[in-house]
Amino acid sequence: MKFITAILFIFLISGCVEEAQVSFDNDSWKTDANGCKKIRLGIYKEILESQDEILSLTNRQIIRILGKPDRNELYGRNQKFFIYQISPASKCNITNNRETLFLFIRFNAVGLSQEVFVQGAPTFIDKTST
């Protein structure tokens, strides 16, 4: 009886560890750190459309799908944000005349993703260099 219980437990655990399936090109996303190659600009809308697949994943699962975040932020009540740069960051040495976009993934205190959203921030444009 203990043997059968142990086997059932193993099947149960292996079912919970199933890799999340995504419907966008996550390999290309991972190769575009800080958005320098501008690949993420063409993919981020697909991520938003696939957010049902992303919600309730752990931070390790998110890293497997999207790669290491460009930034992390911690807030009260043990909330954590993974932040991915969508449009080129200033460290890319690319002139960016549009607003800078970021993909945010918010994790709750238990470590599960609860929200996926894109937010823009105005980019400083040096008018003296034109």
Give an overview of the whole structure:
It is a single chain. This protein is an alpha+beta fold and 130 residues long. The protein has a single domain, classed as 2-Layer Sandwich (Beta-lactamase Inhibitory Protein, Chain:B, domain 1), CATH 3.30.1450. It has a four-stranded antiparallel sheet with strand order 1-2-3-4, with helices on one face.
Short synopsis of the structure:
This protein is an alpha+beta fold. It is 33% helix and 22% strand.
Mean pLDDT: 79
Pattern of helices and strands: HHHHHEEEE
How is the main sheet built? 4 strands, antiparallel
Q: How much helix is in the residues?
A: 25-40%
Question: What attributes characterize this protein structure?
Answer:
5 helices; alpha+beta; Beta-lactamase Inhibitory Protein, Chain:B, domain 1; 130 residues; 4-stranded antiparallel β-sheet; globular
Blueprint of the fold:
Layout: H1 2-16, H2 26-31, H3 40-49, H4 51-54, H5 59-66, E1 71-75, E2 79-85, E3 100-107, E4 113-121
Antiparallel strand pairs: 1-2, 2-3, 3-4
